[in-house]
Amino acid sequence: MKHWKETARIFERLVRVSAADRRASLATVVRIEGSAYRRPGAKLLVEEDGETLGSISGGCLEGDVREIALAVLADGAPRRRRYDTGADENEAWGLGLGCAGSVDLFVQPASTAATLPAIERALELFAEGRPFALWTRLEGPRAGAMAAFDADGTISGSLGGGEDAIGRRAAETIAARASRLVDDPEGALFAEVLLPSPRLVVFGADEDARPLVTLAAAAGFDVVVVDHREALLAPERFPEAERRVVRRPEDGLAGLSIGPRTFAVVKTHRIVHDRDWARRLLEAGAGYVGLLGPRARAREIVREIGAESDDRVFGPVGLDLGAEGPEQVALSIVAELLAAGSGVEPRHLRAKAREIHAR
After folding, report:
1. pLDDT: is 211 or 61 the higher one?
2. How far apart are CA 73 and CA 154, in angstroms?
3. Which residues lie below 8 Å from residue 7, measured CB to CB, with a gap of 6+?
4. Residue that finishes a domain, picked among 171, 194, 217
5. Is residue 208 located within the same domain as residue 289?
6. Phi then psi dihedrals of residue 79, to 5 deg
7. Together in a domain, 137 and 170
8. How far apart are CA 152 and CA 154, in angstroms?
9. Structure confidence by residue, pLDDT tens digits, 145-191
10. Is 142 helix (H, G, I), strand (E, B) or coil?
11. In the structure, how many helices (H) and strands (E) does the chain have?
């Protein structure tokens, strides 16, 4: 869920580095097997002075990958590297991670003519909030070449061949929502799908909304805060919010772009306002409507708007974490948002029979 924003920040930094005539390498996770901290597409940018941005693990691989990235800058040759993170296998690398999985990385010079056209186009698509696919050649004489593909098949950059065929399948690739390795006669490719961050709209800007906005933004949501009291929407109260909107329920939802990928938490602390916002959100097609407050209150709202059988309503909102106070309640809400967005049933990881990232 954080992939969209994190990649945008890395690419923005990379373009600035290149404009200043400095060089940088980019390490990308292209495959995982078993347990792994990050999914395919996670990135670490390493500048020529050793400065880094991003992450490709929980911190256990970054030091070694940084040295590889600097070596790539020295000789200009991309590298693929596999880390087997079992307890025994990694002793060869002196890492001893014991994570029982493997991670494949591709490390390439990133501030080059083979990468920058695709990266610059990617930044435009980030700004426009449009999904796209970024393809990278991993093998052969064009290893490290990148191309960005819009959903309509528009191509920016070159892979050294095969772009037209990939472009014809661009919409299908993006709709699959999964980054993957692809075999190709000219050398393996990595197809990375980038989807805009989900939007969370918080209705109610009272004090308990502040930790919710902070945590949700940190988790990767684009957060909008809505309230009829303009003073509560001061920028300093919600610095992480993408937008702050002065609005009453009777003003409607115009301009808030409510849809199936919209999450909403309704918490105005006024039952009439909560009821009216919940009704409008469901009518507009929101995919998740959370209602803050006791079970009896939530049931009353649901009954009044005729949504008893609507599984988009989460009331009371949040997971049962034994939370107390605004910060802990916010944590329970964001945890439920993440679970709902991922389509998983919340449970203890120790009770999961498969790998952590397996669905």
Report:
1. 211
2. 30
3. 41, 43, 122, 126, 194
4. 194
5. yes
6. -135, 145
7. yes
8. 6
9. 999 999 998 999 999 888 999 999 899 999 998 899 999 888 899 99
10. coil
11. 9, 16
